[in-house]
What we know:
The chain is mostly beta strands and 133 residues long. It has one domain (3-132). The chain contains one helix and ten strands; from the N terminus they run βαβββββββββ. An eight-stranded mixed β-sheet has the order 1-10-2-7-5-4-8-9, with no helix packed on it. The N and C termini lie close together (7 Å). 14% of the residues are buried. The model has no long low-confidence stretch (mean pLDDT 87).
Amino acid sequence: MSLTVIDKPKLDIDPSILDKLCTQIDEQGQVVLHFLFKASIFGGEKIRIWPTTYLYDNQSEFRSELVHQENISLAPQWTELEPSSARFFTLVFNGLPKSCMSFDFTEHCEGGGAFHAKAIRRNKSDVYFLRIG
């Protein structure tokens, strides 16, 4: 599936939730990816994330593992989408090495339709926003 990194997203996030996430990121050195998935007008779409989803450091052999998902089902379960709806979900990964300048986001799954984004430039916050589709 095609993924696009959003440099300056316009999102309304409850400040208490944002504070909690930022505190957890600072304490644990995690990488957070926020996604926007827009369902088709025809409906019947389902999404999920496989536990075999990783961040790969482009400067080393390091692989960061998925540690938490929010608002999306973990395979083999599915999240059903209403026609023309927008689904926001979040994935949290182990921290990347300080030497990492860019990384690939790769979902390894059965049956095709995997999410993948190459060469995501690292930022100071380690929080990223991506649009699917």
